[in-house]
Each structure stands twice: as structure tokens, then as C-alpha cells.
């Protein structure tokens, strides 16, 4: 699929998210940090999706030369139906001013003590991931996925697939 004719804006300057767009589309998006208008640490799928949508819409307004705004949001969600576990999810929203699509990246189980600590102490996942890994800025690099899989999956990989899912309906003739 050819994404080269479409100017993309991305609602963050986070390097892992920028890298995901570059891998997915072969182009560097115009980046602007815009508010997600949800909590710093979303704790449900609905809040995570809403944050991604808010960023996609805000960045398309902030960067009028772009044709599609991309918003990405990471969040935690507790599955009380099947497993009673916390999952990390990574969502991408794509908005062209008329149509909205979502790409929902890999849901990955998070150690119970991490999920509970984030909820109980009101801290962000990135703080705990940096603590556990003994390094800084993991949310801009491999992220929790990288730590938990010893580098087999990383945050840009997961967002790359989410970007492809959200953008494909705008670019593939199969959706016309
Ligand atoms: O700079 P922005 O675009 O805001 O990106 P972010 O990583 O700080 O923020 P998100 O809104 O995507 O994620 C919400 C919180 O969850 C954290 N988080 C999400 N996915 C993560 C991952 O894979 N590794 C580490 N922290 C993660 C993140 O760093 C925030 O603290």
C-alpha cells in the first residue's frame, strides 16, 4: 500500500510512536504534542480509545496542512470477565475530518502487582516500568512490551500494527 501521497500529523513527540509511523508508512509524520483530555494513566479500554481519538482530532486541527491526524494512546484495562488480569493496550486513531478508524494493538498481560500498584498509588505505568528495568524513558523506546518479552516485542512494533490497522481503510481500494 502506498502512503506517500498522504500527509500525516501525529499528536505526540514520543519517539516510540514516531518510530511506529515511520515503520508503518515509510514517512516521518508532522508531530505536535496535543492533550489527550483523558487521565495521564488511562485505566480502561474506553478511556484509552477516547484519548487516542482526542489526540487524532486535536492534531489535525493543530497541523492544517496534514490530511490525516493520528492519535496514539497506551492504557491499562482490567479483564474481569475471563482472566481477572490487567492488560496493557495500545490504540491508534486516524481521523481525516470526516471519517474515524481505530487500530487496536496487542493486549498484553501485565504482572498483577504492576497493575494493582498503578491503580492503588495513582502512578503512571512508565514509572513502574522504568523502576523494574532500572533504566529511564522506556515509554519512548521498547516500553513494557520490551521489558516483559526481553526485547522480543517492543512498543514501536505494537503501535506500527495499530497504525496500519487505522490507516488502511483510508488507503486501500478494498474499502471504497
Ligand atoms: O508522550 P505521550 O504521547 O503522552 O506518550 P506516553 O507514553 O507518555 O503516554 P500514553 O498516553 O501513551 O500512555 C499512558 C501512560 O501509560 C504508560 N505506558 C503506556 N504504554 C507503555 C509501555 O509500553 N511502556 C511503558 N509505559 C507505558 C505511559 O508512559 C503513560 O504513563
UniProtKB/TrEMBL annotation:
Sorted UniProt keywords: Hydrolase, Magnesium, Manganese, Metal-binding, Nucleotide metabolism, Nucleotide-binding
Segments forming domain Non-canonical purine NTP phosphatase/PRRC1: 11-170
Family annotation (Gene3D superfamilies): 3.90.950.10
Enzyme Commission number, as recorded: 3.6.1.73
A GO biological process held by the record: nucleotide metabolic process
InterPro entries: ITPase-like_fam, NTPase/PRRC1, YjjX_NTPase
Protein name: inosine/xanthosine triphosphatase
Names of the cofactor(s): Mg(2+); Mn(2+)
Pfam families assigned: NTPase_I-T (PF01931)
Catalytic reaction annotation: ITP + H2O = IDP + phosphate + H(+); XTP + H2O = XDP + phosphate + H(+)
GO MF assignments: ITPase activity; metal ion binding; nucleotide binding
Organism: Brevibacillus fulvus
Amino acid at each position: 500500500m502506498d502512503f506517500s501521497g498522504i500527509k500525516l500529523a501525529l499528536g505526540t513527540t514520543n519517539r516510540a510512536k514516531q518510530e511506529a509511523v515511520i515503520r508503518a508508512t515509510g514517512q516521518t509524520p508532522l508531530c505536535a504534542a496535543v492533550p489527550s483530555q483523558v487521565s495521564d494513566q488511562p485505566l480502561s479500554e474506553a478511556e484509552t480509545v477516547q484519548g487516542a481519538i482526542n489526540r487524532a482530532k486535536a492534531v489535525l486541527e493543530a497541523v492544517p496542512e496534514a490530511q490525516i491526524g493520528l492519535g496514539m494512546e497506551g492504557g491499562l484495562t482490567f479483564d474481569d470477565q475471563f482472566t481477572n488480569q490487567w492488560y496493557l493496550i495500545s490504540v491508534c486513531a486516524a481521523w481525516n475530518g470526516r471519517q474515524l478508524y481505530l487500530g487496536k494493538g496487542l493486549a498484553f498481560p501485565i504482572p498483577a502487582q504492576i497493575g494493582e500498584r498503578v491503580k492503588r498509588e495513582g502512578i503512571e505505568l512508565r514509572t513502574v516500568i522504568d523502576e523494574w528495568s532500572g533504566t529511564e524513558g522506556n515509554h519512548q523506546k521498547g516500553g513494557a512490551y520490551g521489558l516483559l518479552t526481553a526485547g522480543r516485542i517492543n512498543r514501536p512494533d505494537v503501535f506500527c500494527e495499530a497504525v496500519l490497522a487505522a490507516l488502511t481503510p483510508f488507503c486501500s481500494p478494498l474499502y471504497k
